[in-house]
Fold this protein.
Amino acid sequence: MGTTSSDSSTVDGATVEQSLTAELTQESGTPPESIECPEEMDAEEGKRYECTVVHPQDGPQTVNVTMHADGGFRWFVP
């Protein structure tokens, strides 16, 4: 059973990692070696998290993830 309350929901970090992997692979043509995000991310509009991406050529980089209330997110590399 989940522990999601009616006024707050979370997104599994692994789901965000999978989406980031697909988007980064499409953008660069090379899949990242690994991505690490927090285990649970609040689906709260504007909530920010940092994920660490290890790319084969560029090494580790921080990716800023900003959540949307619907569980979606946008990201950018600072």
Observations:
- Confidence is low (pLDDT under 50) at residues 1-7.
- Residues 32-78 form one domain.
- The first helix runs from residue 13 to 28.
- DSSP finds one helix and six strands in the chain.
